[in-house]
Every structure is written in structure tokens, then in C-alpha cells.
Design brief:
CATH topology of the largest domain: Rossmann fold
Number of strands: 12
Number of domains: 2
Largest sheet: 5 strands, parallel
Strand content: 15-25%
Structural class: alpha/beta
Radius of gyration: 19 Å
Number of helices: 8
Distance between the termini: 22 Å
Length: 234
Amino acid sequence: MSAKLLLIDDSEEIQALVGLFLEKEGYQVVRARNGKEGLRKLAHEKPDLILLDIMMPEVDGWETCRQVREISNIPIIMLTAKGQERDIVRGLEMGADDYVTKPFDLTELRARIRALLRRATEMSPEDSRPKLFDDGYLRVDLERRLVTIEGKAVDLTPTEYRLLAALVQQAGRVIPHRQLLKQVWGPEYGDEVHYLKLYVRYLRQKLEKDPSHPYYILTEWGVGYRFRDFPDRE
């Protein structure tokens, strides 16, 4: 049975363009014009994923995201205007899983949807966080706390390891700067972005074949970082 998507956007153009494209891709698309209507349809339609615009009348995307997260872990992709980094960060910190910026490539949106749906179905109730990343070159074994490159152990400091673990556990997802800082360094470091940039540089020097053109730890400009998704998900 095809996945059901809830598209919440007040733009008729987006509703028509995105809705029709996704229906042609085999998805069921439920449409809502604002957050209030979207929350109502979430309860009645039981979708598998939400596409959520930010700027909407009555109940905006941020408030909608917050209310959704109070009752559900359903994957959420934000639809944002290009260049609104603060909006993106705010949405991710409220619990959104990913974002695409308008105007967006529909094939890229499709790829993001597939990745999130696949990740959601693979999650285990006991522990949804991955324990092992291995693409044949880099291996990160979180259960054994062991990192190797082509079979050779990589020496990481405790802070470097905590940062890498935080990234790997959410591979494929954008993690905002503030979230990473609080998770790795503590809540009092939420604004110390220079700490994060410094340690990302250290990790890239130890893990990447070409640190100046990173393959694993990807920068989402103005927002945060994304660790490359697991090989079997790409």
C-alpha cells in the first residue's frame, strides 16, 4: 500500500504542483490549507509523513510542528523560503526532520521523502538510533566505541567521539548547531558555534580523504551539519 502524505501549505500553486507530482509518484496526498486544518487531518487521515509550510494564516508552521510533536513522531519535512536560515533552525529545533527550500527540485523532494519514510519504517521501538556505520572505508561502531578507516583504528579525543556519535546516530538528518552544542558540550554552550566548527574541522582532518571537500560530515550553511546517510539508504 502506498504511503500517505499530508501536504500543509496555503499556496494553491504548491498544492497543485507538489500534490500532482507526488500522486504521479504513487503517493496518496492529503491536502490542508493551514496548520489548523492540517492538525485536524493528521488526526483523521493518519498520514505517514507531513510536508509543512512555515508562513501560513491562523496556525503557522512552527506552531503546527510543535503541536504535532506533542502527539506524534511522524516524519516532518519543512517547506521554507530560500535563505531563511533562522526559520530552518527554529523548525528543526521544534522537531522537524528535514527541510527543502523554495523553489525546490521536485526530484530532490522525492528523495528526501523516500529517505525519511525508509528511516521511519526501519526504526526499532527499543532503540531507534543506529549503532554501526560501515561503508567499507569508514567504520563507526558505537557499541564498541571503535572508529576505523580501512581497518585501522582512528584516535579520537572524548569530545571528538561524542560529536561523531551524535552525528552518526542521526545520519542523513540535518542537526542544528545549537542542538549539537547542547548534546555534546552541554546546555550552557548553545551559542558557542566556534567550538562546533573547530571540532568538525578536527574530525574532518581525521576521517575525510579530502577534508576541504568533505564526504561524510556535510555543512548545511547557516543551519548545522548532516552526516552522510547509511550506504543502504542512499
